[in-house]
Amino acid sequence: MSQIIQDIQPILACLRQGGIAAIPTETVYGLAGDATNTQAISQIYAIKQRPLDHPLIMHISKDTDIRQYAIDIPDYVDTLIKAFWPGPLTLVLRCNTALINPLVTAGQNTIALRCPQHPLAQEILRNLPFPLVAPSANPFGKVSPTSAQHVQASFPQENLLILDGGRCPIGIESTIVLATNSNGYRILRHGKVDSAHLSTIIPALELPPQTVGTLRVSGNLLTHYQPTKPLFYFTQLTEAISFCNQHPSTYVISAYPLSTFNTDQGVTLPADPKIWAYELYNQLRCADLSKAKHILITLPPEAPDWQGTRERIIKAGRYL
Q1: What is the pTM of this model?
Q2: Rounded-to-integer distance, Cα 14 and Cα 225, Å
Q3: How confident is the model at residue 212 (pLDDT cuts 50, 70, 90)?
Q4: Around Cβ 93, how many Cβ atoms within 10 Å?
Q5: Of these four, 104, 132, 240, 306, which has the most CB atoms within 10 Å of its CB?
Q6: CB burial readout 113-145, b (16+ within 10 A) else e
Q7: Could you tell me which residues come within 8 angstroms of residue 119 by beta carbon, excluding any fewer than 6 positions away?
Q8: Is the pLDDT of residue 308 over 90?
């Protein structure tokens, strides 16, 4: 049975012995293991039921020299690291394949690196002689955990230590940036570090998204982050109200008052992208635990600081 603890020492001991443990980051809780240990990495894939062709993000301490793991690093990468690390930015770089376990990269020639900001995550990394892989601590494709209790609910029967670091202050996964091209970068997954932040630090270097790409990264599937109950999203308020009239047993997540939808199941969130990111996964889990049969979300605006939340809602649900 999984166990929530507040002592970091058993977590360190478990990781040193090749085990896995759930740890907090500023984005979501991660299922962590030694990035150099094939058995630990394999165990993470197995527990999450994650496809072996879906690569992992490697987590490093803030004093780590990325040049031991990556090659052919563009000049602008150092600027991004100085601006955003430690923090919720993952950089995809060309990989030093001689030093990286192929299970981490899923056999690709790129490595995804992140330096988490959460003080407990940094303390763990500082006290280990190896980096960690730490995908979200939930079954593959399901709602990510933003509290130790969420992790325990996801893996109630696993013999898993969960380090309680409180609610994750950001609440959605890191921004992923492809930084293999010296002429510029491409955003592969949106998060708190949005396109406006990036362009402020390194102007005029964002490349347009690829309509067809073969690179595999975390969260790039068409469906992901899904609750157990069917989730529907709407851009028009009239459509959302009509849906609720036809489906009265609906949990509503919206910036509009619940009375707008003639329901008392759900939550009204202020029109603040930080609060929506912080609450999204928590509210999806609350909806799954509720008596409602459906979940409805009114989709936030299409603006840079909302991109991460919109992206996850669209992948988690469907539009009627």
Answers
A1: 0.96
A2: 28
A3: low
A4: 22
A5: 132
A6: bbbbbbebbbebbeebeebbbbbbbbeebbbbb
A7: none
A8: yes
